[in-house]
Amino acid sequence: MSDSERILIIGAGQAGGRAAEALRGAGYAGRVTLVGDEAEPPYERPALSKGVLLGDEAPESTYVHGQEAWGVKGIELVTSVRAEAIAPGSRSVLFSDGRRMGYRHLILATGSRVRPLIGVDDTLGGVHYLRTIVDARRLAKELVPGRRMVVIGGGFIGLEVASSAAKRGLAVTVVERQAALLERALPADIAAAIERMHRARGVDVRLGAAVSALHGTGRVTAVGLADGTELPADVVVIGIGIIPNTELAEAAGAESADGVVTDEFGRTSVEGLWAAGDVTSHYNPVLGRRLRLESWQNAQNQAIAVAKNTIGTPAAYAEVPWFWSDQHGVNIQVTGMAEAGARTVWRGDPSAGKAMAFSLLGERIVCATAFNAGGDIRFARKLIESRRPVQAAALAEAGTKLKDLAAPAQVGAAA
Amino acid sequence: MGWHTVAEADAVGDEEAFGVKVGEVPIAIVRAGGALHAVHDICTHQYAHLSDGYVEDGCIECPLHQGRFNLVTGAAQCAPCTEPIKVYPLKVEGGKVLVEL
Q: Does the interface ipTM go beyond 0.85?
């Protein structure tokens, strides 16, 4: 088979791996090559901040498939090799090992990288970022009971690390620059419930606190805050977000705006060039706008849809966003998108067990957050999809089955 | 071993599930598309009761991470689950649900 028939996938993470697999699943018999710059085969990241840090799960358990399974599926997996440049005119890619590969379709699944904390010495020993299996292995070794950890960034990664470290017996402080945790993801009152969960487990949460310095010689000893506070630290974890790896696509002429711009089928602005996963700013037909997502669902399902589109099987990626987090033994699931101006309706109390928080615009649910109530999140997703009006009082009443609220409307009922 | 009476047949609505224990074994009794099924109640991915999950298209979905299992074969249908769940023989006699272990 010649290069001109090849579907080339750059980025061998979850999205790249699922795209390759989906091509075979859809019956594509041509050449499929998956190239990544990490040493591992495609793996999923959720457990890296949870089970792997707790020591409950081996890092290798995150592999989408074992190393040998890719060859069995007829997928050529190339690891530890970087793509250097795309030549969209001649449809070829130059790689760091000097190889040049031609393609018929190129799927960019280049993912993202951690956002560095600027203005501090993050090269000190004991200072960590968490993104890769290598990062997780290094950090897991540092989780020694009795040590003091400072987590910089009160987003989901930071809070999951805080939870894992607290369970391992470390004294944990979370430092967040904003006035609330999870500021980009959730309304402040729902984030406050998660903050209370952390405080109840002994995690010290400092809000509105900007980091000005990391102190230490060789190894970190303290985190300095802008107000002069010094927090003693044996281990520091920085989790302040990610940056999509758009450079390769941009250099090839693809439109980019906080992510490689694609339609709902994964097409970029360059012929033959597609993109999937974290790196995309993709149009979502359910929400009616473009967005960039950093989730397991998006990495898997968008990649599967995009792969099908490259071989002429139309498949729009049109799902209500959904993700989960596990903190202090509580499973948190969020579906939909929090929107400014939404009000919160609680069903149950998360400090007392199962609970849900619905974000409503008028009588329409735009987002739902479940605390140990994953079984109900699917009905919430249906309600978000259907845009059906619901009464706040019915949502708040634990006796009302969400299943019934989400069921197809009765004849004669208000639409 | 043998058949165990675990519930009244009308105790579970369609596309619903509930958990029972036979001895020490947690079992989910599920009605999907009208038909009753008995499967092991604990997800093979992480500890969670499938009977708290979502039932659709002959599958039960784990409430933790939305892994799905076929109720007839027990096969895992999608990530993050790969290992199947155990499926148990089930019959209804005199309005009672019996499960064989």
A: no
